[in-house]
Write a structure and sequence with these properties.
alpha/beta, 6-stranded parallel β-sheet, two-stranded parallel sheet
Length: about 280
């Protein structure tokens, strides 16, 4: 899953692709590099971010989605709002990637069900301006598992088919760096939910903390890519279904290495068994 941030304030590339032409060109490059699916988002969820107006989010993502769908690209919409999901799915998006798991807007789940779209439920506790205040766990792996299980039940109750669901442990959302590493080491526990796992570690702050300079200064966002690819490589070897990344080309190279190491053929774009594709 290639990341297409159509925002002025995303932590990694805010403002670089907030013009339609630039966003479409960037998205096309991600597809050429090997992305199966593009995740188009119009709201930054970095810690401390403020939410855009509904009209702003719609104005950011819809023109890009329409253009990409017209080019035959599979599109996911990264949104927590039912109205945005409705418009994006009507425009041809096939996946809703909801970082709130349906908690920010419960109406979103019924929209996904009505469209028979695929849905990714991420572990989430609060909006960006307060989420780090909720980063308290006795056992982060067990609690994330339990809270995701509740979101899966809500999605199923809303009418979303089980074979159109995936989960995301939500690295960096209401979690400290230590929590993120515990979750990565405990990914196998999430297999108990019986659903594909999407993982988004690319360029996140816990990697910046890991790679901090001797004086404690976090590694700049643009210099975290090798660490992100390392996480992707280990996640792929662990059987993670989908990797949400900024640098698609380097990640695809890493996945080829994993496939060769395991003695199997590399499964490239267009043949990955996407969640939500018609039988």
């Amino acid at each position: 899953m290639g990341v297409v941030n159509v925002t002025p304030d995303s932590f990694s590339d805010g403002g670089r692709y907030d013009e339609i032409g630039a966003a479409v060109a960037h998205a096309t490059a991600l597809v050429d590099a090997g992305a199966d699916l593009l995740d188009v988002g119009g709201e930054s969820t970095r810690p401390g971010a403020t939410r855009p107006l509904l009209s702003e989010e719609l104005g950011r993502v819809l023109p890009v989605i329409v253009e990409l769908v017209a080019r035959g690209v599979l599109v996911s919409v990264d949104t927590m709002r039912a109205e945005v999901a409705e418009a994006a799915l009507a425009a041809g998006a096939v996946v809703v990637n909801d970082v709130s798991g349906g908690l920010a807007d419960p109406d979103l789940l019924s929209v996904v069900a009505e469209h028979r779209a695929a849905y990714v439920a991420m572990h989430w506790r609060a909006h960006a301006h307060e989420m780090q205040d909720r980063a308290s766990y006795a056992d982060v792996v067990a609690e994330v598992h339990a809270e995701l299980a509740a979101r899966v039940e809500a999605a199923l109750a809303a009418g979303i088919a089980a074979d159109r669901l995936a989960i995301d442990p939500g690295l960096g959302f209401a979690k400290t760096p230590a929590h993120n590493w515990e979750l990565l080491r405990g990914l196998a526990a999430l297999d108990g939910l019986g659903l594909p796992i999407l993982l988004g570690a690319s360029r996140k702050s816990f990697l910046g903390s890991l790679l901090a300079s001797p004086d404690g200064t976090p590694r700049p966002v643009g210099e975290r890519e090798d660490a992100g690819v390392a996480v992707s490589t280990l996640a792929a070897a662990a059987g993670v279904w989908c990797l949400r990344v900024h640098d698609v080309g380097r990640t695809v190279d890493a996945l080829r290495v994993v496939a060769a190491w395991e003695g199997r053929e590399f499964v490239g774009p267009g043949a990955t068994g996407k969640v939500g594709e018609d039988e």
